[in-house]
Design a protein that fits this description.
Length: 106
């Protein structure tokens, strides 16, 4: 009576277009080159360093313990952190390989 009928507009034909996905593709590429790739490279270098550990190397663990390797096992290394004080730590906790003679300067 006082209110007229409202009719819906005809639906627009939605054509999927590759340009609508372009921002997502660009974000993924940036994410890959800025975050994922450098992290994979760093993890690979860490694995190589852990595999190359040998007796006499001076290292620092993730907990901050600095010591000299006296024995290398399959999954553990023995660190001499003070004269006559040897602790066993897991290999994957070794974070940094120090240059020779660093422990004497500490």
């Amino acid at each position: 009576m006082f209110i007229s009928n409202a009719y819906a507009a005809a639906p627009a034909a939605a054509t999927p277009d590759w340009t609508s996905f372009l921002p997502l593709i660009v974000i993924f590429v940036l994410f890959w080159f800025m975050l994922i790739r450098p992290q994979m490279k760093q993890a690979k270098e860490q694995r190589k360093m852990i595999e190359a550990l040998q007796k006499g190397d001076e290292v620092v663990t993730t907990g901050g313990v600095a010591g000299k390797i006296v024995k290398v096992g399959d999954s553990f290394v023995a660190l001499e952190i003070a004269p006559e004080v040897v602790v066993q730590v897991q290999k994957h906790t070794v974070q940094t390989l120090l240059p020779k003679g660093t422990l004497k300067s500490l």
